[in-house]
Amino acid sequence: MKILVTGGxxxxxxxxxxxxxxxxxxxxxxxxDKLTYCGNLENLKEVESNKNYxxxxxxxxxxxxxxxxMKGIDKVVHFAAESHVDRSIxxxxxxxxxxxxxxxxxxxxxxxxEVKHFHHISTDEVFGALKLDDPAKxxxxxxxxxRSPYSASxxxxxHLVMAYxxxxxxxxxxxxxxxxxxxxxxxxxxxxxxxxxxxxGKKVPIYGDGKYVRDWLYVEDHCRAIDLVLTKxxxxxxxxxGGLTDDVNNLELIKKVLKIMGKDESVLEYVKDRLGxxxxxxxxxxxxxxxxxxQPECDLDTYLEKTIQWYQANESxxxxxxxxxxQEYYQRQYGK
Length: 336
Ligand code: NAD
Ligand code: DAU
Prior knowledge:
This protein has helices at 11-23, 63-69, 85-90, 93-112, 149-168, 190-199, 219-232, 250-261, 286-292, 300-313, 315-322, 325-334; strands spanning 2-6, 28-33, 53-57, 75-78, 117-123, 172-177, 180-181, 204-207, 213-214, 217-218, 238-241, 248-249, 268-271. By secondary structure, it is an alpha/beta fold.
């Protein structure tokens, strides 16, 4: 089988390529990535010389290239996106271009080339925000209610994916997944930002009161969920994928990090809140469990510790990132 992975040089995409080549060694992977600020071929060094792996540098918005790359592809796993909410608040237009237009260009090429399965990676953020201290969780029937330019662009892409299925019969599936953590995550996201700041002796910025809730999912559990959807998922279906059963707010999460790293709470810095900050996400993954046998295997405490150890052991990976464009972004976002 030949799989086209878009955005495979990013955080989840590169973890997925490692996972897939390890678990399906006879399959071929073509990784198409534009290498934006967060695309990093260092994430894929170990598979560079694997004969079943090929890298193509390109933009999902370039129709002609996408049409060429799509030839002979059996399945597409579409990760490529602008993925950071804070950047979408600073500059929404690239989110519209890549996440919406880019997805439509891929869908068109997949249809033309009779791809057998187009899997779209989406987010739980399309469902909006839940209330604190409310047992409700997102599921596949939750009404879409995106509240940031990022989630609005992902919601639009989900609708396009389903429209190509219903209108033209393209065989699609979608996963709406919660907050991933693990190796190779660009240090603009809360966990890698906090861990690397702490290693550098810097403070950890906490937005607002810190009582925002996210559903933390170790990236390898996410990769296994995608595998299950690719092999057992029903065409035309959406699956919600999460990692937790109980709520953990940002302060509780960061206090776990502080404990593992032997730091006290004086390193927390309460900063201006994110505009339109969604209060709580929680995912009901029972459909994926019942239909596909999905269950998260990586518990938060153990895998948080493993993640911290990875950033401690791979300083050169994130120090190179933090010395580039990142400085300018950090200044703009945090004012220092
Ligand atoms: P990331 O920002 O780390 O990586 C995105 C990758 O896409 C990069 O390699 C980048 O170079 C590439 N890319 C961006 N624009 C492109 C374009 N126009 N053409 C080709 N490549 C392009 O993102 P991530 O955190 O790995 O997220 C991957 C996907 O998963 C996204 O679709 C995101 O919406 C979704 N998602 C992420 C999370 C999370 O917690 N990180 C959770 C749920 C869903
Ligand atoms: O829910 C899935 C989504 O998770 C994905 O679709 C997105 O691509 C991914 O970026 C992530 O979005 P979040 O906005 O939830 O992740 P982030 O790591 O940016 O923030 C997590 C929480 O931490 C959120 O409540 C905001 C807060 N935060 C974040 C940063 C960067 C802080 O308090 N301080 C910070 O400096």
